[in-house]
Design brief:
This protein has one helix and three strands. The chain has about 55 residues and is an alpha+beta fold. It has a domain at about 5-40. The protein has a three-stranded antiparallel beta sheet with strand order 1-2-3. The radius of gyration is 13 Å and the shape is globular. The relative contact order is 0.14. The mean pLDDT is about 85. This is Glycine cleavage H-protein. One of its GO terms (cellular component) is glycine cleavage complex.
Length: about 55
């Protein structure tokens, strides 16, 4: 199976190997398998406070 065939359609990807899944008013954020293989341990994630509006880019 090609990598493209295994890409879930509901995910949106960044050029830097993060992804987001929007479900209603909630978003789930992750990193691609490629990023997992290239990075060392992830120590922290810096997110905006709940309720803070965000926009692409």
């Amino acid at each position: 199976m090609t990598p493209e065939a295994k890409t879930p359609e509901e995910l949106r990807y960044t050029k830097t190997h993060e992804w987001v899944r929007i479900e209603g008013d909630q978003a789930t954020i992750g990193i691609t398998d490629h990023a997992q293989g290239e990075l060392t341990d992830i120590v922290y994630v810096d997110l905006p406070a709940v309720g803070t509006p965000v926009k692409a880019g």
